[in-house]
Amino acid sequence: MIGLLSYLVFFATVATILAIAVLGLNLQWGNTGLFNGGVAAFFGAGAYGTLILGGTPQAGHLGGFAMPYPLALLGGMAVAAALAWGVGRLTLKLRHDYLAIATFGVAVAFENVMRNAEWLSGGAKGLRGFERPLQEGIGSGLAYNALYLAFVASLLLLTYLFLERLVSSPFGRLLRAIREDEEAARSLGKNPAKVRLTAFVTGSVIMGMAGGLYATFYAFVSPQDVLPILTFQIWAMLIVGGAGNNRGAILGAFLMWGAWTASGWALSRHAPVEAQIYAGSIQYVLIGSVIVGMLLWRPQGLFPERLVVSQSGGATRPAPAK
Amino acid sequence: MTKTGNLLRTGAAMGLALAAMSVADTAAAQECSVKVGAVLPTSVDWGRPIAETAQWVVDQVNEAGGVNDCQVEMVLRDTQVDPKVGVDAAKALVDLDGVPVLLGAVSSGVSMPILTSVTVPAGVMQMSCCSSSTAFTALAEEGKTDGLWFRTFATTGVQAAVGAKVAQDQGWKKVAVFYKNDDWGQDIGKLVAADLEALGIEVTASVAINDAQPSYRAEAASALSGQPDAIYLALYPNEGTATVREWISLGGTQNMILANSLKSEEFRENVGMDYLSNAWGTDTASPRADSATAFVDAYQARFDGPPNGPGLANSYDATMIALLAMEAAGKDATGAEIAAAVPRVTDPAGTPVTADSAGFTQAREVFAEGGSVMYQGATGNVRFDANGDVSAPAVVWKFGEAGIDEVEYLSLDDVDAFMSALQK
Questions:
Q1: What is the ipTM of this complex?
Q2: Which of A41, A263, A288, B378 could form a disulfide with B316 if both were Cys (CB 3.0 to 4.6 A apart)?
Q3: What is the model's pTM?
């Protein structure tokens, strides 16, 4: 029983951290319509930033500033913000698929820099030497993991409440206006470029926070953690959950990560021994089928976006969601 | 599954239980099973044979009667070479299946978070076949692995040292280093450069080679400017072939030192023997024990082909040593107790045992009397140091018309002596 509980705490921690990243993407894509194909870069910036600022000194590369943990995490978010601001200034003029390609390129470049700049990131063998906060007193067992889950869950809740308020505020309406018709927003005297950049940076900071929490949990990060597959996973979670809906984003993260891990577990448990070797490949097929199925039969996701009508206008009421 | 199915199964189980009770107790003892966990990248083409080899060891041990009279069940999980997925799989194996021993992972970037956040906190022994990063040694030196970490992949230090020895023996004074740009390549590139300089040989350039580039002309040209007498190549066959072609077409020297990753027919055929007459390779393993050739023969008989992929002999030894240690530690031992029993498996003064089911049976008898064994594995007489690292014998080889010819053999003691001389 303890084993099951211990595993569930572990699973929920990773799923919660991923859910935070999905919320960040939801602000960018779901609400503002920015196709960020470089989630891994902002996630990674937060992860590397946190570990470099909060870790103990290591031979051969930067880091070991041993800052207090909250400062290190905020620092990681600041690194993600700085990266997002730079990338945003350069690329946000691009639309849709062009923006996706540009940001994807940024993520690949980020991974390569981390792999090669040994003085900065420890190179391919990764960055370690981070002491998890409060571990001295609590130990590294179930109690610590449960406490850490409570910590990340409260951050998820805070992020959710923040985004819900943001989306229902006039600023949130402005984001949707820009998503739907930028020209119209401009004609009303709004500055789309500035708003898009604000949304992009805010979303990326949230992803950076998720990255920082992820690296804290493992006390380790390497270039393998920021491969393009991460971007794909986060996107899959948002699509399944429902773009434009924060609750859908969280549900999608838990469901997809659950499917990802449970399918591996179930195959290892129930597939015959001869098929075990191929279980990994079967798992890919299963996950791919789920995503394709969702796109075919429920493209709006499990929790579709709720359209908010700001002013009841009788006959001019917009058509319900497609 | 229907209700009748469940009913049938329950009935069958009860029948089995009754039958088991009616026969002798020894038969009932065989009903039990012990689990070991394995997290390996089975969705990657080169990862699958590593897992098959581990499963093969488990089958052999079960043939010999299993561990502590229990059949061994290996629960295999795929890492997808994704740290998140691998760590989750490891956590599930430890918490849900309660395995005391975890085999894996292959990539250092996956093994490391498993070690720090799963196996060490839970007190589970972790034995990797193939993780090569020097970060593990550093972690063990800091005392953060609790003696639970082992790997059968000889540290890159051995190869780097022997590579430097080749340069010294050939009288080359200036060497340029090309290395694959991953954790293995970065480590070995750095180590070989340090070893060369310790021997008074100048390293004119250290050039990283990224995978799958259309051309390596710029890399080759940048190394050429130092006018080296020889080049050291820690690359895989594809990139190795491309780099050597560019290098030779630019007029670079044909004096080469090759890491074991280039010990492949593919490399020889694609570069051509004309250019490889002065290429000297290094490799760990291929020890003089009969057990190593026995492994190759047995592997061929089992899988209809030679063990040519990376990490197969290492995977064999990792699994076998883990199971032997479980046997030595006794029934229901914890991960820490099993890890503490590993020296009884690899004791240089112990009874030699072979790497097959007969060897396992023999080892069981020795353990029962409280003795220890010297496991003669597929990578030789494996011996772990305090950090869970293995050293290994080494060979120097060359490409010949017929295949790969061995030039020089350095026993484990020779290697250790040469490496400690380098440290001074």
A1: 0.87
A2: B378
A3: 0.82
